[in-house]
Amino acid sequence: MDTQEDASAGRATPAKSPEDGEARGMSPSPKKRSLPESPEESLGKKSKLEDVESPEPSPRFPSPPNVPATSVDKETWQGYCEIESDPAYFSVILREVGIQGIDVQELYMVDPEQLCLLPPVYGLVLLFRHREFDQHKQEGTCPDNVWFANQMPGQNSCATLAMIHTLLNVDDPDIDIGEHMHQFKDFTKDMTPVQRGHTFASWKFVKGIHNSFAKKMDMLENDKYIAAKAAKAEKNKAAGQKKTAETKKTPSVQTKSRSRTARRNSDDSDASNDSVEAFEENAHHYITFVPVDGQVWKLDGMDKQPTLMGEYDEDQGEMWFDAVSGRINTLIGAGDNDYGIFAITQSPLVPLRNQLCEADNTIKRVDGRLDTLSTDWKEFLDEEYREPPSPSFMGSFSEEQRAANPIPDSIKAAIDKDDVPELLVRHSKLVSEMQGLVSDYMEQVQVVSEQDERAEARRWDYGPAIQAWVGMLAENGFLEENIGEFGGT
């Protein structure tokens, strides 16, 4: 379960950052130092991100609070960080897990007509302020054809788990879930949802990718929440076991002092409890709705078992999201406005790749037939339509992908009957078509590249740098002199 007021679900880690453990400019010196003219000046000559040297990983866990989370922190920390509800981050996580052919798109509402315009949709992930619903519809046991796992308490893994719930139930030859996910699914196939949840929670491979977005502050806040929750549980347990009656004797001075101390401790504990309750009241949670064998399931890691939401018949032209869109919209309408909807879809690269492979197979057959009918046939073509896309580009597609997109039999028969003029026209059309497909394909590759860059930037932890900079401003008296401009008194 995730807990941000802005309906977010996870956070970030640094790729590079200073780890000297010293809070620069924060020593209590009465003497003012001159401020640098700009943040860039304070960085000296190394103003570019790539010029900053990576520090040696700290062998200590946790590392000092004034430095970004180190690789040791992230490898040793037992929790899951929160991750902002950004489809770009989710897409990057899935690709780094090894899942190919998938994209995550944000929706504003569940509109079946809109969903029909998207590439194949494999699941709908809902982010909402957590509340239980349709509990009475849960299955007694998890069906054999549905992969479902429970989410372990105290972990912010629901975003990643919701996506894995979707993709481990996908049956599409164009989607490759990768070696790691194949092995995980096979390893957990005979487990109960609870056992799968424990296995997922301890899976370092996925946890490491998820927590690559962790910032030091995220980890500290999560640990603080868990500690407060544990203290609250311990206090409630102690109160329940307390059966002795209050003494009727007049308390001594020492007893009164102890009573005052007890009240102070109680007040501190109540404040901690209030913090925990406020944290949980604002909790947001991810669940997913997925189609499996003509049925639509709600998979919520906080539930004990999957919930059957409806059925559909593909042979009758029914779309699976028709069976659940009304229920999701009703759920959204009855709750708060801070929700998010994400469609896990086929990547646009997949159909473009398939079309390119089929076109390449086709033009090779056309060219082969032209070679048998005329040795100088290329001289009769305009230069821009003589050659298909470069062999190096087309070579990026595997033989298996080419074989999966053969020439339709009707097209193959037509090619074998065409004469030279007809083949030349067919060749020119294919080259033009392939040029357009390559352009579209490269645009989508650029989108993927931008997602990767955005995720890498999000993994950079600026917190310690900001802390040091604010400390310098405070030490130099700048904050005190200009506090009015910041709304202070």
CATH topology of the largest domain: Ubiquitin C-terminal Hydrolase UCH-l3
Largest sheet: 6 strands, antiparallel
Count the DSSP helices. 18
Q: Show unreliable segments.
A: 3-55, 252-269, 271-279
- In terms of quaternary structure, the protein is single chain
Report the C-alpha radius of gyration, rounded: 30 Å
CATH class of the largest domain: Alpha Beta
The termini sit apart by 38 Å
Order of helices and strands: HHHEHEHHHHHHEEEHEHHHHHHH
Strand content: 5-15%
Side by side, the strands of the main sheet go 1-6-2-3-4-5
Describe the structure.
The chain has 489 residues and is of the alpha+beta class. The protein is 46% helix and 8% strand. The chain has a six-stranded antiparallel sheet with strand order 1-6-2-3-4-5, with helices on both faces. A hairpin with a 7-residue loop joins strand 4 (295-299) and strand 5. Pfam families: Peptidase_C12 (PF01088). Belongs to the peptidase C12 family. This is ubiquitinyl hydrolase 1.
